[in-house]
Amino acid sequence: MATIAEISKDLENWTVFITTLFPYSEDILCKKIVGTWSIQDLISHIMGWDKDFIKTLDKINNKEQITLQENPDVQAFNDASVDFGRSMKPHDLLNEAISQRKRMIEKLKMVSESILISQFNNSPYTMESFLEEMFVHHDRYHKEQIVNSLQSID
Fold this sequence. Notes:
The protein is mainly alpha-helical and about 150 residues long.
């Protein structure tokens, strides 16, 4: 069982990784690498989920009832996140993604350890399993895609 501090550290690894992308040109950050998505799109996609989960953490911290689940229309959510990111300059997006992830971690640190391991209503997840699956593993998956694409450039 992981603690909030351990999960926060895992989540922070994403911000550390994003900082390694600043030296790359806009052309590289905007080049399609996975289907129709670029590095910029992948970063924006993850940032969209971060922003969404910040709302969930606010509800938890306000003692409101929530259900931990994926968005019912994942494709529409992802498309909207990617469209949002495409409206920004790539390096501005990197800064915003770091900012949103740090904000999410700050809000997570306000949650009690007991909430982290409790089962949520109508959900197959505890907060711990949700964060591990939907964020930590998801971050690693997309990081690997980005690293592989950048290796082919270098």
